[in-house]
Amino acid sequence: MSKPRILVTRKIFPEVIARLSQHFDVEANQDDVLWSDAELIERLRDKDGALTTGTQAINAALLAACAKLRIVSNMTVGYNNFDVAAMTAAGVLGTNTPDVLTETTADFGFALLMATARRVTESEHYLRAGKWTRWSYDMFAGAEVHGSTLGILGMGRIGQGIAKRGAHGFGMKVIYHNRSRLTPELEAECKASYVSRDELLAEADHLVLVLPYTPESHHAIGSAEIARMKPTATLINIARGGIVDDAALAEALMDRRIAGAGLDVFEGEPKVQPGLLQVPNVVLTPHIASATVKTRLKMAHLAADNLIAYLEGREPITPVNPAVARNDPGSAARS
Ligand code: 8YV
Questions:
Q1: For residue 333, what pLDDT is reported?
Q2: How far, in Å, is the centroid of ligand 1 from the Cα of 299?
Q3: 190, 267, 329, 333: which sits with the fewest CB atoms below 10 Å from its CB?
Q4: CATH topology of domain 5-99+293-327
Q5: Do the Cβ atoms of 207 and 201 come closer than 8 Å?
Q6: What angle do CA 108, 318, 158 make, to 5 degrees?
Q7: Domain with CATH 3.40.50.720 in the chain
């Protein structure tokens, strides 16, 4: 029997490609060419599965053109590149990579918070530019981290990781807002109190965004929300571009309506809102929150595990639309 055929859409660890090759006939984009939608469809037409990285849109048009496709395995926890309803309707399973990146991403959220509050990159640019000629009492004086109020919008696994770091490591008061409230046990573990969205905006000294990107969360933070924040507050986005109105944020930072922002994700990335590049009080990183070698390898292996399990007739490990796997339509139900 011939092996199932899969496409790996971006360059990933060679050892994971080697592992996949033991199970599948693999076409891998190890030259890391950025394909257009049409080029992606052309390569995916004859494939049973795909390993994607979150930058390829899996939508109704692609699904209609790729009738053999049974699974798309994202090497990410966020899957806003999936049209889940269209995938479910087409009988295509989607999988993601939760858990393996939680602590690493929470570490980075905290790194960005601290860099922003303590003005790390702004002061480094000053030093590199040769402007540091003497000590001054208020030079790059920033905001306190320990003992301050940490606000978290979106209290999933990564949000909880950030809460624990703040509460247990830095003695912060932790408040959060989420679609659903945590259990009392989890709230106690995170030492976090549930508040309304308005209270969160008004009370946080440092507001970290860790919610998924959906039509409802588009521009969840715009000029009206920023206006409710303390002028001394910092805003950290490690969730997704589009949750923050970047143009409104750039203006607010320019006018010092909040003290600073730390951004790992951007609307329309890798393009960055030009205004953000002009303001000094923002720390900018290129979507690297999960980027440690160890974690990226775990993510790639979990994405491979999902493909191997499902295409070999077993339960997927981390499905996002498990009904597809339960109904197990396979190619028969789609033909
Ligand atoms: C990925 C991420 O590196 O997992 C996620 O949701 O945002 C990152 O870990 C990124 O999505 C790759 O496209």
A1: 36
A2: 9
A3: 333
A4: Rossmann fold (3.40.50)
A5: yes
A6: 25
A7: 5-99+293-327, 102-284
CA dist 205 and 249 (Å) reads 16
Backbone CA torsion sign across 229, 233, 239, 240: positive
What strands, in cross-sheet order, belong to the sheet with 25-28? Answer: 25-28, 5-8, 49-52, 71-74, 93-95
Confidence of residue 326 (pLDDT cuts 50, 70, 90): confident
Ligand 1 close to Cβ of residue 76 (< 6 A): yes
Residue 1 is predicted with a pLDDT of 75
Determine the atom of ligand 1 nearest the C-alpha atom of 288: 3
Q: Of the residues 240, 267, 296, 301, which is catalytic?
A: 240
Q: Ligand 1 atom closest to Cα of 240?
A: 7
Q: What single letter denotes the amino acid at residue 43?
A: R
